[in-house]
Amino acid sequence: MLRVKPSSLARVLRAFERRLASSATAEPFSSGTSCGYIEDMYAAWLKDPNSVHQSWNSYFSRVVAGAAPGQAYTSPFAAGVSSSSSSLALQPSRRVSADGVVEHFADEKSIEDHLAVQAIIRSYQARGHNVARLDPLDITRGSLQGSAGSTAILNKDLSAIAKEDMEKRFRLPQTTLIGGEEVELQLKEIINRLENVYCKYIGAEFMFINNHEQCEWLREKFETPGVMSITPDEKRLLLARLIRSTRFEEFLARKWSAEKRFGLEGAEVMIPAMKTVIDVSSDLGVESFNIGMPHRGRLNVLANVARKPLENLFCQFDSKLKAMDEGSGDVKYHLGMCHERINRLNNKKVKISVLANPSHLEAVDPVCQGKTYSEQFYRGDKDGKKVMSILLHGDAAFCGQGVVLETFHLSDLPNYSTHGTVHIVVNNQVGFTTDPRVARSSPYCTDVARVVNAPILHVNADHPEEVIHVARVAAEWRAKFGKDVVIDLVCYRRNGHNEMDEPMFTQPLMYKKIKEHKNVLQLYLEKLISEGTVTQAEYDEESQRYDKVCEDAFTNAKSVKGVRNRDWLDSPWDGFFEGRDAMKAPATSVTLDRLNKIGQVFSTVPQGFKLHPGLKRTLRGRAELLEHEQADWAMGEAFAFGSLLTEGYHVRLSGQDVERGTFSHRHHVLHDQEKDLATYVPLNNIEQGQATYTVCNSSLSEYAVMGFELGYSLNDPNALIMWEAQFGDFNNTAQCIIDQFVSSGQQKWVRQSGLVLLLPHGYEGMGPEHSSARLERFLQMSNDDPDHIPVLDEDFMMQQLHDINWFVCNVTTPANYFHLMRRQVLLPFRKPLVLMTPKSLLRLPEARSSFAEMTGDSSFQRLIPDQGPPAKADPKEVVKLLLCTGKVYYELVKERERTGQDDTIAICRVEQISPFPYDLVLKELNKYPFARVQWVQEEHKNMGSWFYVQPRVNNLIRSHCPDRTHRHVSYAGRPPSASAAAGNKQLHLMEIAQFLKDAMSPV
Q1: Is the peptide bond before 786 cis (omega within 30 degrees of 0)?
Q2: Which residues form a coiled coil (predicted)?
Q3: Is pTM beyond 0.85 here?
Q4: Over the stretch 749-774, which tens digit does the pLDDT of each residue have?
Q5: How far apart, in whole angstroms, are the C-alpha atoms of residue 255 and residue 252?
Q6: pLDDT for position 791
C-alpha cells in the first residue's frame, strides 16, 4: 500500500501549497501521486467543505487564509490521540492558540491511511483492466497479464497489510462510487468491490481521458452498485438473440459446408451487442444507422441485425443464378444493403445501412464516416442525434492498418466529425495466422483509439450480460458526449481464418483449447437454467422456431429465378433515375447575367473586412477580368461552383489546402487580418436561397479523406463532391480507395458515385514527386475495349459516358473546366471524374476563356480542334497532325510559332481521354487526310496516355480511314523511365527541347 513516511509528509504538503500559490502557471500534479490526491480533495473541499474530514477542512482553511508554506500543517502533539481507531475517519489532533482558538490538525497516520486508500482506488481505476479476466480461453497473452494475481500487480505493497488493517473501515473519497449510499467500507470490502468492477470480465480503460466530467460519468456507469444487473426479461431477450446468432451460423454450416462464409463462431455475442447499441441509440433518438464492417460475421449481421430477408441471402449461395441487372456482383460477404424496419422494442422506425466493401480491411471506415456525415448534413442533424455510424473491426487490422488512425483523426474535426462512432473490435486474438506477440508493439490492439481520448471497454465475449452492459454504456456515451467509443470484444475464432482453413498449422495450443471449449450460447444457457430464469424446454422451443424460419427461407430461395444486384445497394437513390433520359446530353451553359452576378460577389468583400494586401490585388484582378468578360482558372471554377449553388446543388470541396489552393490561386475562404477565425466565403453569399458551399481544409491524410468524400458522394446524387490532392501524385496514398471503390464500385455493387478527384498534374521541373498524377494508372483501369470501335451514331457520346466506369480528363481552358464540372452534376447518371488539373496554366494568359465560351450554345468540348492557321489554310497542306492533352499544348503552339510551321502542323487537344472521343478524332483525321499522326505528351513513354491512345487511334484509322496514306500514330515525348520526372532542372529542359523537336519534325 502506498504510504507517506512521516518525515516526508510535511514536504508533500509544502509542495501542494507551493503549487496552489502558483496555480495560474503551474502544471497540475500527476494523477496517482500523493500531491495529486491532496489536490483532488482540495477540489472537493472547494465545492463542499463538509465533503472532507474536519482535519482536512481545518488544513485547507488555513492554506486559503494565507498561511505561509509549511505553517498550515503542524505535527500533532496532543497526548492520548489514538492512531489505531477502527475507522479512517481521520483523527484530528488539537491545540489551543494564544487567543483561545481551538485548532485541528490531521495526525500523520490518518493522512497516510487516507492517501493509501486513494492510491488503491486509483490503481484499480487506472490499471484494473490490465488483469481483468478478458480471455474466454484463459490463455495469457500480452505483456500486461500475468499469473501473480490482480492485487499483487495493482499494488505491490497490498500484500504487506496486516490482517487487522483489512478489517478497518475507511471513509470513501469522492473519486469513487463503489459505496453507493455508504460513505465508509471495510478495506477488504473496498478491494472486493473494486475487483468485481475492474478486474472481472470487463476491463474499463478510461483514466487516460483528460476530462473530469467524462471520467466521472464512466465511473458512475461501472462503479455504482447494481448498475450491471439486468432483469429476467432482458436475460431472455439476450438468450433469444444468441440463439439466432448461433443457429444461423450452424444452419449455414449444415447447408453449405464447403462454402466460405467467414462465420461468426466464437464471437456470436457480437449480434446481441450490436442490437443493444441500436436499441439504446434508437431510444435516445437515433433514426439511421450506417454500419461499416469486414467480412467476418457480415452474413449474420445482414440477417439478424439489418433483417435482410433470408431467402434473398440464401440464394447468393447458388452459383448458378445469374444477375438480372447490371454489374458483376461480388462475393456474398462483401455485399451491403439498406433496410428500414420497426424496432420491436420501442416501435420506432430505424434505417440500417450496411456498406458494401472489399476485402481490404478497414478501407470502409472513412467511407462509412463520410456517408454518415453527409446524411447528417442533409437532415440538418448538426449534433448527430438522428444519424450515427457503427464500425466493426478485427483486432489485427485495427492496430495494423494506418487508415484506422487517419479516420480517428477525423472524428473531432469541424467538417468531418460524425459526433461519435461506436467501434466494436472483434478481437480474435490472432490475425489470420499471426500471433499478436509478433503482430503489434502495443499492449492492446485498441491502443490506437487513445489518441482521441476514446474510452476503451474490454470485455470477455463469453459473458453476454457484461457485453450487453458495455454495449449500453457505449451507446449512452456516444449520445451524451458525441465522441467515439471502442468495445474490445475479446473472443476467438472457432474455425480458421475461413471455414476452409486449418488453424492447427500455426496455433495448435489455442485450437486444442477451442475444440474443448463450449460456445457462448451453451455457457449462457447453463447459467440461466441454473438460476431458474429459463428452462430447457423454453430454449428448445425458441431454437426450433428459428430453425423453422431458416428452413422456410431455404425452401423459398430455391424458387428465386435470379439475383438482383440492386437489392444489395447500401445507398439507394430513390427517384433519381426516374423520368430521366440516359441518352440526353445536358445543357451546361448559363446566362451572362448569372456569370456577372457570381463574378461580382467573387471579387468583393464586406465593408470593414480587413483583407490581406496581396488579396486586394487578387480581387482587383478578378474585377478586371469581369470587366473584360474573361475568366482565368480560378474565375472559371467559381462560375461552375456558383452557378450550381444558385441552381440548388450542394457543392463540397475537401483536401489538405483547398481553401486557399496549393498554388495560391483559389482563395475561397478569406481571412480577416485583424480578427482570429473571422472568415468570409464569397460563394456562400451569392443570393438568398442558394445551396451551401462547403470548402474545407482536411487533415494531412489522403486515404481517409478521399474515402470520406467518396462516402459523402454516395448519400445524395444531387451534389458536386470533390477531393483535391495537394499534388496529383499524392493520390497514390489513397490507391486502395481508388482501386476498390472509385473505379470498380458500380461494377461490383451497382453503386454509382459522382466523386471528382482533382489532381494537379504537369511537368514544371519540380522533380519526381511533384510532377505526375500518374494519369496512366487511371487510364489502365478504364473499362472500355481498345479493340472495339463503337457505332458512331447520334447517341454515341452519351452511350460512351453511360457505359464507362469513370471519366478521365485533362482540360486546358477555364471554360472547359466550367462545363465539365457542371456536366458532372447535370448528367442523368453518376460516374466518378478523374481530372488532371493544371499548375502553370492557373495564371497563364493564353489559358483564359471568354464569357461567350460559357454562355449561349457552348458546351464541354471533348476535343478542341486546331483553331490557328491550319484551320484557316488548306487542310491538304498540313503534313502533321499532333494529338495531345494538357498543358503541353501551349508549349507545342509556342514551338510551332518559333519554327515557322504554322501552316503545316495542326495541333488538337484531347480534353476527355476516357472514354475516348472516337467521333471527334475521326473528324480531325478526315480533315487532314495527308498528315502524319503523332501523339505528343510530356510524360515518359511508359506513362501518360500513350499506351491508352495508341491502339485506339490505330484501330480507328484501320476501321474508318483505310485509304489514309499514314495509317499509324507515332510517339513524341520523353523516353521510358522508372522515375516519374527528372530531378535536375537542366535535364528537365533538355527533355522538353528534345520532344518538342521530335514533334515539329515533319517525319
Answers
A1: no
A2: none
A3: yes
A4: 889 999 999 999 999 999 999 999 99
A5: 5
A6: 92
